[in-house]
Fold:
Amino acid sequence: QSAKGPHFIEQIILDDLKNGVVKEIRTRFPPEPNGYLHIGHAKSICLNFGLAEQFGGTCNLRFDDTNPAKEETEYVESIMRDVQWLGFRWHRLCFASDYFHRFYEWALELIHAGKAYVDHQSADDIRETRGTLTAPGKESPYRNRTADENLALFESMKRGELEDGTCVLRAKIDMGHPNLNMRDPVLYRILHRHHFRSGDEWCIYPMYDFAHGYEDAIEGVTHSICTLEFEDHRPLYEWLLDNVSVPCKPRQFEFARLNLTYTVMSKRLLLTLVNEKIVSGWDDPRMPTISGIRRRGYTPSALRRFCQEIGVSKSNSMVDIEFLQYIIREELNLEARRAMAVLDPLKVVIENYPEGQTEMLDAENNPERPEDGTRQIPFSREIYIERDDFMENPPKKFFRLSPGMEVRLKHAYLITCTEVVRNGDGEITELRCTYDPLSRGGEAPDGRRVKGTLHWVSVPHAVKAEVRLYDNLFTLRDMSAMEEGKTFRDYLNPGSLKVLENCFVEPGLAETGPLEKFQFLRQGYFCADPDSTPERPVFNRTVALKDSWAK
Ligand code: ATP
Ligand code: MG
Ligand code: MG
Structure:
């Protein structure tokens, strides 16, 4: 529970427990294994697993694998990995495909009771006779088949005697029902497709609406939580449970889905980005997938805190991506080890520093956590600084390096620029400086004030690295508001990835742990990418610093 008090689902559960409606709560997270999970799913995971933890109940991970056309083992594995990475443990691991026999039995029960029939109309006919919000639908000419006839046909469907699309099983409810979902919805269709778990055992597959409530009932789910789009499917959910004998009767509750600015959250679109190689894969650090966000350098605790803070409600809204960035920035500020990295190098030669000498300087690992101690970084006559930390003709408030100007090298010395060296094209290739040997650590003995502080890396000790800078994948804040006639392609941000191949990092960063996190001074928060090798480390920028000091 948050400081704001219980949200509406917590309140429902509190009341149910108090009133003895349930003794213990059971929830489930029910992804369809047809893609990788995204941050919207994280909201649902945190909610379902979080409620179970909070109220001493249990939560299942259930794969809603009832559509053989799109589902794969790779997705199952990625989903399990992502849920565990977020820090949750399922009570049971379940697959809807394990329930196919029971679904079939319930379908037979509906047919026996005259509550379902086999319809030979085409999919188009079924759609067209469904009616509209203002006009009732039209009954199918096959609606009044006898139970025996329906039974024989349904069994024939199951035995594989009929082609895909020949007929479907429909619920017999009410073609004039004000809720369109109740106008004889399709329950089963014929699909001669190999299922990644049940193989070729079945050639009829249940529809989501038919299966979902029964999955919940089998597992003894008490609170079946889904997103708002399913609110007007709830009468059907209940009808299906009320018209057969089920071991328990779960109840469905709906909450608003997460929408984030500058991204899309539909698996179909994310799959297109992957298939068309617009991104490097499901775990491309620009993707809103959990695996992409992980590779970008986010932590499970940051995602969980994000989900906690955005809250759970019944009104749809859009969350600013900046809010997510704010949360990871806050966390990494406290946690991440500091390091120096020069992304766009300019060589500086310190003329009065002894040639061939290296000295080790003390650098604090994290000013927010003195207990993290210090490390030793090498300093020498030649260093790299950031190219844009030098200006030959600086404006008034430029406190970085310029001819005649003195600046501080972080953890090292005060230096003054004495000469600018150029190549034949007039491009600056090197700066000549002098240093004050008495300023070790960064303070002048006479107390003179030096405003600018630069990060740097010693040339002979530097490790060459690749740095990847990321920006939003899309240029439109609300991707559900694309202009008519446009597609997501019209809104791709051409600057969403910038690869810097000529960066230098301090030597301690040659070997990093997987996804190890750093604050590169004045640059932002970075993590080691799995593409890293000791010869060539690769770093992803998770998020920039809000304001870079002394700039
Ligand atoms: P998509 O629309 O991206 O394809 P989906 O809802 O079809 O997602 P499922 O695998 O069925 O994907 O989702 C599993 C669970 O995650 C469902 O209970 C669903 O309601 C929830 N979920 C999906 N997207 C979001 C979201 N943006 N915010 C909150 N919960 C979500
Ligand atoms: Mg779904
Ligand atoms: Mg979907």
